[in-house]
Amino acid sequence: MTMDISGWNTRLTDEMIARHVSSGAWPNLTIADRARDWATHTPDAVAVIDGDVSLSYAELFRRSLLLARAFLGHGLRPGDVVSFQLPNWHEAMIINIAAAMTGLVVNPIVPIYRDAEVGFILEDTQARLLFIPESLRSAHYVELIERLRPKLPKLEHVVLVRASRDGYASFDDWMAFGEGEGTPDAAALPAVDPNAVKLVLYTSGTTGQPKGVLHSHNSLGAEIDAMARLRSLTAADVVFMPSPVTHIAGYLYGMELLLTCGMKTVFMERWKAAEAVDLIADHQASFTAAATPFLAELVAELEQRGVTLPSLRFFGCGGAPVAPDIVERARLVLPHCETTRAYGATEAPTVSVGVVPGDPVELAAITDGAVLNHEVRIIDPATGRPMPPGQEGEIVTRGPEVMLGYTNPDATAEAFDEEGYFHSGDLGFLSHGSYITVTGRMKDIIIRGGENIAPKEIEDVLHCHSAVREAAVVAMPHARLGETPCAFVVLNEGGALDFEEMTAFLESHKVAKQKFPEKLLIAEDLPRNAAGKILKHLLKARLKD
Predict the structure, then answer these.
(1) 310-345 CB burial, b ≥16 within 10 A, e <16
(2) In a structure prediction context, what are the per-residue pLDDT tens digits for the chain, which is 545 residues long?
(3) CA 306/CA 15 separation, integer angstroms
(4) SS3 for 405-429, per residue?
(5) Does an H or E element contain 172, and which?
(6) Beta strands 197-202 and 169-170: pairing type?
(7) Domain segments of the chain: what residues?
(8) Cα 518 to Cα 475, 481, 484, 485, 492, distances in angstroms
(9) Alpha helix locations (H) across 307-367?
(10) How far is C-alpha 222 from the geometric centre of its chain's CA atoms?
(11) Domain 221-442, CATH 3.40.50.12780 — does that match?
């Protein structure tokens, strides 16, 4: 383990640095370096659209420099943590670049988090600075932080974004402070090591306390460079980003990808399918990545309108299981777009995505895509023995974009084996050469009378029923068998489904009877985390009630 300037221990070694730099996987650049280049070479090109706000690359870099000077003027130094709990606002992009300029560690916090999660994260990171709105919809962030602040002695500054309030500095105040220091000079900024920790992002915490994931400039740079190459992205492309920038997909593709290619990013603050269609059409967006519900609702909106979006050429979908039916429907309403399932995690952002040119397009619906930028193994969870193609096991991976570790070194040691493979806890198999298919979480497997049942297999069939908008299958206690499946189903408007019809439908699809859910519960909605992943532990808790 190596001590980072931030004080966290990481997996970084001289051998790892030499290997990934010599291979070209680690670019040895920061986002600040990239932003400076685009501001110099294409100063007038639009970098970001945020509602009525449009910033050129020159203006984005100028504002980032002002904030960077404010960071230094307020005593922050390389390795310190700056947190923000913001929606998809351009200010988040400025904070991210300014932090990279000064060697600070940026810590995005999901806006829906409240006292328990925010308190844990700010204490775990020892954040010195926090950017928040005063309030947003039903959330009152100032009141939240005032409840927490007595327990956070390291938190020196709380800055309000798009608001002003007595006793609090505003984002505009900090920008003015940076301008008051004189003309921003990039040469006056500290040297930043691309191998230093630059991001601490917390896992969604679906089974307990969230884990702080540590990434460097280079580990994230490896991901965005690989994606740009795979999709042949250029400055002519336009990113549409509805995914929260406080989640790994939104962070990478909403705030960092544009700086790789010099393209434009269009932010969407709050997902609404009808507005999404209009934004994509108005800005001729060509690339997006979002969670499963976003794709399902976009497809439904396009089907209702009877229109297509010819500019959109790639939609990567992940974060939660994607039913093959959704991908097939998307292909019909987005005929110019490669709509594909993708697999990754905060710890290993993009393990697989899409279909390799020349391979059958149907693989986009029935697999989670070709492995990208990773060495993947499928192993027997009990013995560690590699599994042959087509057989299920735990997905383990290593590569240049895998995290440097967790904030908790014990969790890091538990997650990696002696060969440097990250143990994901996800189940899946390899087929068609390098294509991966995720079948579920090890902790989600239902053990019925000693037989393992994968919930996703049942869910995929239920998603084919015309009345079903969404389905989640979880383990339900059973007196004799230990566990048995229970199905939670959200119905389409006007749809109806009862237990007998569900059973008959599964039987018609040749599902083995021992896999049939023994209870059907109709729900108005399913609980989710910020990544769109269904919180199955909360569904299990409903069963106990």
Answers:
(1) ebbbbbbbbbbbbbbbbbebbbebbeebbbbbbbbb
(2) 899 999 999 999 999 999 999 999 999 999 999 999 999 999 999 999 999 999 999 999 999 999 999 999 999 999 999 999 999 999 999 999 999 999 999 999 999 888 988 999 999 999 999 999 999 988 999 999 999 999 999 999 999 999 999 999 999 999 999 988 555 566 689 999 999 999 999 986 544 568 999 999 999 999 999 999 999 999 999 999 999 999 999 999 999 999 999 999 999 999 999 999 999 999 999 999 998 889 989 999 999 999 999 999 999 998 766 778 888 999 999 999 999 999 999 999 999 988 988 899 899 989 999 999 999 999 998 899 999 999 999 999 999 999 999 999 999 999 999 999 999 999 999 999 999 999 888 888 787 876 778 788 899 899 999 999 999 999 998 877 778 999 999 999 999 999 999 999 999 988 878 889 999 999 999 988 766 778 888 898 888 77
(3) 55
(4) EECCHHHHHHHECCCCCEEEEEEEE
(5) helix 171-180
(6) unpaired
(7) 30-46+57-193, 221-442, 445-544
(8) 10, 12, 7, 6, 22
(9) 324-333, 363-366
(10) 16
(11) yes
CB-CB contact of 189 with 178 (8 Å): no
Residues 239, 264 contacting (CB under 8 angstroms): yes
Query: Where does residue 311 fall: left (phi above 0), alpha (psi -120 to 50 degrees), or beta otherwise?
Result: alpha
Q: Are strands 212-216 and 405-406 parallel, antiparallel or unpaired?
A: antiparallel
CATH number of 445-544: 3.30.300.30
Tell how strand 157-160 and strand 169-170 pair up: parallel
Of 308, 300, 344, nearest in space to 466 by CA:
300
- Spatial distance between the Cα atoms of 214 and 196, rounded to a whole number of angstroms: 10
Q: How many angstroms separate the CA atoms of 422 and 405, rounded?
A: 10
Where are the alpha helices (H) located in 209-290, listed in sequence order? 217-230, 248-251, 257-261, 273-283
Burial (0-12, 13-18, 19+ Cβ within 10 Å), 192? buried
CATH for 30-46+57-193 (3.40.50.2020, 3.40.50.980, 2.60.120.260, 3.40.50.720): 3.40.50.980
Q: Is 69 helix (H, G, I), strand (E, B) or coil?
A: helix
Same fold, 221-442 and 445-544: no
Which of 348, 346, 347, 344 has its CA nearest to residue 322?
A: 344
Report CA Rg, the chain: 23
